[in-house]
Write a structure and sequence with these properties.
alpha+beta; Rhomboid-like fold; five-stranded antiparallel β-sheet; two-stranded antiparallel sheet; 63% helix
Amino acid sequence: MAFGWKTEYEKRVNAEGLSNWEVFSIAEQACKDLDWEYLVVDEKTFTATTPTHWTLAEEIITLVVDGEEIIFKSQSESLDLYEAGRNKKNIEDHLLPAFNKIKKELQFQTLQEHANAIKTETLRQLKTGNRVTAEKTTYGVSDHEITFALIVINIVVFGIMAARGVNIHFPSPVDITKWGGNVKFNVDGGEWWRLITNIFIHIGIVPLIVNLFGLYFIGLIVESILGKLKFLVAFLGTGVMASLVSILWVPEGVTAGSSGAVFGLFGVFAAFLTTRYVNKRLPVAIWVGNGLYLVYTFIYGIHDVIDYSTIIGGFGAGLFIGYLFYFFHFNRNLARAGGTRITVEVILITGLLIFFYLRKYGRDDSLRFEKAVMKLNQIELKAMTQMQRLQSAESNKDAARVLSDSAMPEWRHFQQELVKTDKYTLDEQFKRKRKLLNEYAGLRIRQTELIYKSVQEETQQYDAEINEVSEKIDKIIDQLGE
């Protein structure tokens, strides 16, 4: 049990005549039973990674064959605030019992066959440097669950949009914005979540099909390399970064779609292609599928349908994240898909980018002001409805009651809600609008007071002033409509 430092536990066990490859064969079966990710590093070293919870750092398991001894070691990957003896439990309670159980159950011939297969494949990998080459390429859901889940989510979201009346071929900018499209004005106004939601919103069925086609073929590769958690983080992280680049590059209009995230995955793959970690000899179908997506995207973009800023931003983000994963995880001989440490760091980097963007651009309260104006419009409608009731009032007394008890409170409410926006940080255009609305509110209150006096006193002496105030109100309405 330890607090606040990297912890480890080591135990040496007699090899009992087992060769290193036989030890690795047994360890591989044990890791499969424990659901641990594993990697045969070289002729003497085997590593594995324990399953992790989001609140805990992973532990790295190492098996080293040193002469007549097998060294079992479990080490925390990062600082532990409260280690609770997990490293010792990994060896004593989990790996060693599973290792000894399999050693007893495996027949000699089967053990030799497994050991020879591991030896042949590992030596070939060490020669070529392709550490993922042993994986058999598949095209179904197995081993690509996150890829298929993302495809399903995109289809479901598009289906719900269509069911709610959004045009499936040419959805309007208003609809895309309503459903979570990426709009700088809204993001700057505090709706940062649009940087994520826009990834799952598509501007028509053709972009949806094209992006899901690309997601499928690049997902077959990248999810196999990164594993489920890192793949999901790479998809969302590059998608968010692409969204940020998009609104910085093209601040006007609304953008949406998975193209930034998909090209982010291409960036991740491109980063790994420059290393000796992955197998470049992929099936022809995968190369063709990805090639068709890239060509079609380029042709589609010629007609100004594709947002190139999103594509470039996503690809650049993918290169960045890909190299982060490689140099801080894969290049250290950790088990391929295991570990959360660098995954959490990528999430933190993405979050910090959003934070610093909002820190610089998110001080504009224009969106809040627009929402406040929508509320003012509702209050104004109620007030005007009360004013119209004057025509049907049966007596001056009834008319006076409508003005004092209904119309006037609504106009004062209008003015009070407007006062709440005085501290908003607005550009000159919205400042002018707020000033006009302030004048409008004051004039409406004055108009109502004058009409009330005229009705209550049953006199026409206020008519000239009422007309003057009404003219000013009409001028302000014209100015607000410009």
